[in-house]
Amino acid sequence: MKQPTFGSLLTRRDFMARSALLGAGTILTSSWAFGESEAKAVAASSSNDIQIAIVGVGAQGRILMDALLQIPNIRVRAVCDIWDYARKYAVNKLKQAGMEATGYIEIEEMLQKEKLDAVVIATPDFWHAPHTNLCLKAGLHVYCEKMMSNTVEGARSMVRTMRETGKLLQIGHQRRSNPRYMHSLFNLIQKGNLLGKMTCASAQWNRAVAEDVGFPKAYEIPAATLSRFGFKDMHQFRNWRWFRDLSGGPISDLGAHQIDIFNWYFGVRPKSLMASGGTDYYKGRQHYDNVMVVYEYPLEHGTARAFYQVQTTTSSGGGYFELFNGDQGSLQISENPRLTKVYRETTAPSWEPLVEKHYLAKSAYVAAPVEKVDSRESKPPEGFEIPVVLNKKLHQPHLENFFEVVRGKGHLNCAADHAFESEASIFPVNAAVEARKVIDLTPRCLLFKIKLKRIIYETCYFIYRTVGGLALKRASCSCQSPRF
Amino acid sequence: MKSHRFEHQAMATVFEIWIDSDDGVYAKQAALEAWRLVDEIESELSFYREESDISRINAMRLGESIFIGEHARRSLSLSLQLCQETEGAFDPNVGHSMKVIKDEKGNASRWSEWFASKKKLTAESKGILIFDEANRSVELASDLPVSFDLGAIGKGYALDRVALLLKVWDLPRFLLSGGGSSLLAGAPPEGKMGWEVSLGKKEYEISERSLGASGIPIKGIHIIDPQKGMPTTRFRAWTFAKSAARSDALSTAAMLLPLKWFQDRLDSSSEELFCIQETEQSELLCFGAFPNEKRTVD
Q1: Verdict on whether the full-model pTM lies above 0.90
Q2: B143 touches chain A (CB under 8 A)
């Protein structure tokens, strides 16, 4: 993918028009614009509308549906969910938005009856791979929420099916399409060398205590239906994120987003990890309610370490963000713009050239030029801001990127094979906690064949040194298959 | 039955729910769903989030059209309707628009120009925004500065939606509060006539109705009279209505409207009731029939 380039100052209207064409985020205050991308020949619907279905309209499905309703020429023809409550909510909401969508319980029936171009999948993690593979084989392009699967085998099968069918598979690491994240990586770090040598990183997601969720009594799913779809009871259905057979737990639900940013920003795979965690607060939950992990990244100038914590007992302590440190500056970035900041080391070269290029903007207070020493009240240090505004729903740019590629324009920002590379370093974390060992993530196996170019590169690296066999069985992180 | 209380921070205030139920766990689960809904609504209505529908509308230009969500569409539509009902006393666009004009232009003639245009728009029932319900979009129909802030209706709107949710959960006995300035009562607690609320020194029992309150004792002078371009100094105003969104917005309007407006409204079939307190020392001036008065607090 070509990186974004800077052009002349755009008016807001210009930018809106370009955003609509390119699926970029809306940026009001900078001269930033996306460059032309190499078009990928993907067949799209003959009409201008893309006909889609949403599979899974629980909490995350609703968020995606709200974002989808902001995108022109997307017609939601069907929703699929085993829960009447969620399905009726979605059908009703779509009706109010002018779309007559049909509700289905069975995805097979939906695929048989509906004429679709693509599906958006937001089912529980353990259903991602079966649903994605089914839809890809039915000839549909797929946008699937992250994690790709609750098992590495499931995730691998999705990449394999994507390649076999030639259909698109975008994974919902939506920060990869967030213009603030893209600008920070491509322009500030890579072009502007804002951080100098990147030496370490940290990230966290601190989330407040949340009790188990329930359901309206009138909307209990029959036991036979629950069983058929892999759930023990309604409690498990509603709280599937805490069950080991159904999901990866908080390190997967929350951490995956941010560890993906470590991998993306460092540009290399971590070479090892060590982790600790436990089920220390919520009694009776299967997954760890807090996990802390340290990765080692082999950069050109040496090893950079990245610390990540996810905990589910307080929202204090800064909420959720990623922080990258270098010898010339630091960048803290988050989906929350108020948590996004840059810090310059006093020994670093001036950032004025970055301001002139509109890579950075000066904060409201600007220190006077240092021409002479002026004795007066204390002045604050020079402040800088990232002049990028995303005034769209957080998942919207990533969905827009997907649909633009469905229309044959550009590249996916997080195709399944790239997502798999990144998620491969997340799958082993729970097992590392259990094993209480350092895990070497040695690249060795799972050779990818890239069609046409025949470029082979390594992706999976779950080779570990001295861990207990039972401990790592659950994470399914061994390289048992040499290729997709 | 026992009354269970839950609270949640949103919209720069504290929301509270009291649910009368034998099943505390079930009530708590319902409250969790309610808070998720409040957060969803805030994500569309917040003036302070760059990606909210309101922020995106505030960044629009004349003739521009954008998609907006259900909550933004409903609450904005109701806001503009109430703006007309109250002859501009409730105006979701007023406070920040004035600030924008004053800060950026500093030109008094621009004020009068803005008011004249606004009145004209209101008179023509055209409004500043044009809603396309079928296309879920909204178009900006004015080149005047817009800066919508639904702070005076958003909490009430959220309570209305939470009330619907609690009925789906088969929990009809509840009292909802958005920061204390917006209340919505469902069915009364078992064995009682209603949920107890106080207006100044009086306490009342309410059920199946809402109560909105505005005033200056806590937040200071902060409500701008769009007719005069000046802040109001009326001490407090309360409004009873069926919908919390209406009582929330109308209580703001009641801070500004002349007493004659309330008297005229008594002649209509409106179920809305108003109480005005001009100064801290003033007695309540009430227009309409009260709910069950329980007692006067000395």
Answers
A1: no
A2: no
